[in-house]
From TrEMBL:
The lineage of its organism: Eukaryota, Viridiplantae, Streptophyta, Embryophyta, Tracheophyta. This is BAHD family acyltransferase, clade V. It comes from the Eukaryota. InterPro entries: CAT-like_dom_sf (IPR023213), Sec_Metabolite_Acyltrans (IPR051283). One of its GO terms (molecular function) is transferase activity. It comes from Selaginella moellendorffii (Spikemoss). The keyword Transferase applies. It holds the Pfam family Transferase. Keywords: Transferase. Gene3D superfamilies: Chloramphenicol acetyltransferase-like domain. The keyword Chaperone does not apply.
C-alpha cells in the first residue's frame, strides 16, 4: 500500500493556558512506554466525492483547535526535569496533523474474521510522525499527539491518533476523540 502525504501542519489549541503541569507519579512507572496508536476506518460517505475530503479536513482541523482548548495540555511538550519528574510545558505549540491519500481501496485491505490484517509497515504509513523519532528519551520538540487523516482511492477514510502514553491513557485518548467528534458536529463537549 502506498500512502502519499499531502500536508503536514501543527494545529494549536484555540485557547491555551501557559504554564507547566506536573504529571502524576503514576506516569513515571512506565517511562519508556511507547506512543500508542489507534485507528478508525470509515467507508466512503454517501455524498458526492468532489471536495468532500477537502471539506472534511477543514472541519477536522477547526474541530481540533476548538477541542484542544479544553485539552490544552495536549498542545504542549513533554519535559523531563532535572529531578527526573515529567511535566508538560503548556506552550501551545499544537498537535501534528497529517493529511494523506492511499492508492488502494478500503475493500482491498486484507480481512480475517472481520478484522484488518495489515502488515506493520502499512499501519505505520497510516499513522506517521512527520519525521519525529519517538523513542525514549522523548524528544522535547515532539508533539504529544499526532493525527493523520488518510483518504483511500474508494473514498473511504482512516483517521489515526498516536499519543504519548505518559500524558494519556486509552480511556483519556478515546475521551478526547469523542469530544473532538462532538465539536466537529457543531456540539459542545458533553463531558469536560
Amino acid at each position: 500500500m502506498k500512502v502519499e502525504v499531502e500536508e503536514i501542519c501543527l494545529v494549536p489549541p484555540e485557547i491555551n493556558k501557559p504554564g507547566k503541569a506536573l504529571l502524576s507519579p503514576l506516569a513515571h512507572f512506565a517511562w519508556e512506554v511507547h506512543y500508542r496508536t489507534r485507528f478508525l476506518f470509515f467507508e466512503r460517505p454517501s455524498v458526492k466525492e468532489g471536495a468532500c475530503f477537502d471539506a472534511l479536513v477543514v472541519r477536522l482541523k477547526a474541530g481540533l483547535r476548538k477541542a484542544l482548548g479544553s485539552f490544552y495540555l495536549l498542545g504542549g511538550r513533554l519535559v523531563v526535569r532535572e529531578d527526573d519528574l515529567m511535566e508538560v510545558d503548556c506552550n501551545g505549540d499544537g498537535i501534528m496533523f497529517i493529511r494523506a491519500s492511499s492508492d488502494v481501496a478500503l475493500g482491498d485491505l486484507s480481512y480475517s474474521d472481520g478484522d484488518f490484517q495489515l502488515p506493520d509497515e502499512d499501519l505505520s504509513s497510516l499513522a506517521q510522525t512527520a519525521g519525529h523519532v519517538l523513542n525514549w528519551p522523548w524528544p522535547s520538540d515532539a508533539p504529544l499527539l499526532f493525527i493523520q487523516a488518510t483518504r483511500f482511492s474508494c473514498g473511504g477514510l482512516c483517521i489515526s491518533i498516536k499519543f504519548n502514553h505518559q500524558v494519556m491513557d486509552g480511556t483519556s485518548a478515546w475521551h478526547f476523540w469523542k469530544s473532538w467528534a462532538e465539536v466537529c458536529r457543531g456540539q459542545e463537549i458533553s463531558v469536560l
